[in-house]
Amino acid sequence: MIPFCDLKAQYDTIKDEIDAAIIDTISNSSFILGKPVKALEENIAAYCGSKYAVGVSSGTDALVLALIACGIKPGDEVITTPVTFVATIEAIVRVGAVPVFVDIEETTYNIDPGKIEEKISEKTKAILPVHLYGHPASIERICEIARQKSLKLIEDCAQSIGSEYRGKKVGTFGDAGCFSFFPAKTLGGYGDGGMIVTDSEEVGETARVLRVHGCKTKNYQVMHGFNARLDALQASIIDVKLKYLDKWIKSRIDNAAYYSKKLEPLENVSTPKIDELAKHSFNYYTIRFNGYDAEKRDAVVKKLGEEGIGCGVYYPVSQHLQGVYSEYGYKKGDLPVSEMVQDQILTLPIFPELTHAQIDTVVDAVARFTG
Ligand SMILES: *Cc1c(COP(=O)(O)O)cnc(C)c1O
Predict the structure, then answer these.
(1) Cα(78)–Cα(264) distance, integer angstroms
(2) CA-CA 20 to 30 A from 242: which of 46, 50, 59, 225?
(3) In 29-167, where does DSSP find H-type helix?
(4) pLDDT for 96-145, tens place per residue?
């Protein structure tokens, strides 16, 4: 049995510190914001190299609050990638804006900057790239377009804490960077959580007000807000785990290199391509079966499952083809690279505690099932 993700194995390595942090927070009864959240915000800002960090209730809420704090309004268009988790698009729609999908690069599966400009209209107000699986999007080119066209840039870093482009951490290129502490992410809590990082005092301050019902001082609302605070127990857990983050990312990178060395001889399999200027933090290790359709890929998923190997498809539906977005008028064939990739990808276990022997087992199985 090889699980997709083994949170218990990681907990066992840091149990004493985690337990002490939880007991400390409970003993101090500082459950709402307070010291644990403030400490984590300072440490995440320092880790990313940003001026401000604002703890929020999830990665999804980080995106919603960041969009509002950046001034995105109902009817505005936001350019984004269709190859992402549903939450990216959901956040755009939740603020009343319209998602505009741009096809992806065949190498990294991130938004293709070469195809952004043709989608910019008078209504376009922002670009929202996702650093998918932990590989930075072509962020310098995207920054250039945003600057030239006076668009806001909000980075979805839910899968990419610790990733870098030219030595600079993702989340710090645009107006706001949005992180998720969902348990299975590279830096996961023991429940939901998220964070916005920014160098803009205004964006940071607005996000702080939005997360507590739009109140600047208690009971006096200055805008329509949310209850979207980061839970203090989660903050205290994540703050312990942050100390180990770089070590865990290193293990993920080592595991990825080992996988790729073993998988490269397989004719049907494409291993992840890494831009030479990028640091890929491998929240996910995703391979692609060349020439496969969804049915053939799903057959491999099923066989791996029968052998007790956890794997997943991230994501089986390009977001422009989700039924709930039919109102925007996209149809099959509009974004051919995204549509091909959705049918061919498969994500293998890559958690830091995974051993080379376990990777050998996974690779053997993939080799047998792709013949
Ligand atoms: C996980 C994820 C989110 C949402 O984060 P939650 O903390 O689960 O709300 C958003 N975008 C991407 C790309 C994600 O992977």
Answers:
(1) 37
(2) 225
(3) 34-48, 59-69, 86-94, 139-148
(4) 999 999 999 999 999 999 999 999 999 999 999 999 999 999 999 999 99
Give the pLDDT confidence of 291-318 residue by residue, as tens digits: 999 999 999 999 999 999 999 999 999 9
Residues in the chain, overall count:
371
Give the position, in ligand 1's atom list, of the atom nearest the Cα of 283.
Answer: 15
DSSP for 220-255, written as a single string: EESS---B-BPBHHHHHHHHHHHTTHHHHHHHHHHH
| Two tokens, residue 338 | 């995204």
- Ligand 1: list residues with CB < 6 Å: 58-60, 84-85, 87-88, 130, 156, 158-159, 180, 182, 192, 194
Hey, which of 57, 58, 60, 84 would you mutate to test ligand 1's pocket, going by the most ligand atoms within 8 Å of its Cβ? Answer: 60
% of the chain with per-residue pLDDT over 70: 100
Q: What pTM did the predictor assign?
A: 0.98
Tell me the angle at which helices 59-69 and 86-94 cross, rounded to the nearest 10 degrees.
40
b/e code 50-76 from CB counts within 10 Å (16+ = b): bebbbbbbbbbbbbbbbbbbbebeeeb
Distances (CA, A) of 247 to 11, 281, 295: 15, 11, 38
Helix (H, G, I), strand (E, B) or coil at 348: strand
